[in-house]
Design a protein that fits this description.
about 100 residues; mainly alpha
Amino acid sequence: MKLPYFIAIAGFVCGLFAICIPHLSALRIWLGFSTFFSLVYIVVAFALSLRDGVRAPPREYDIPGSDISRVFTTIGASASLVFAFNTGMLPEIQVGPGWVGLN
């Protein structure tokens, strides 16, 4: 099966849950099943990841170039990560403290 089918099934189950379980006291059984299936999923995912990691061939992770080239490559990669994960901060900084004095 493909991902869209799983998404549709999960949406259907959530809708069915919302219709069939109207109050919190009825959640007792649902939480038990949910906990059980979550733990099964975690164990299976961990076991499969461990098996794939043990069977994988060794990899080479050396950074090519001279020592100074490696330093600048690392700085550039870090700057890219900071930019990628902090782009949402710019509008907050621009709108933040400057607008306080205008009220």
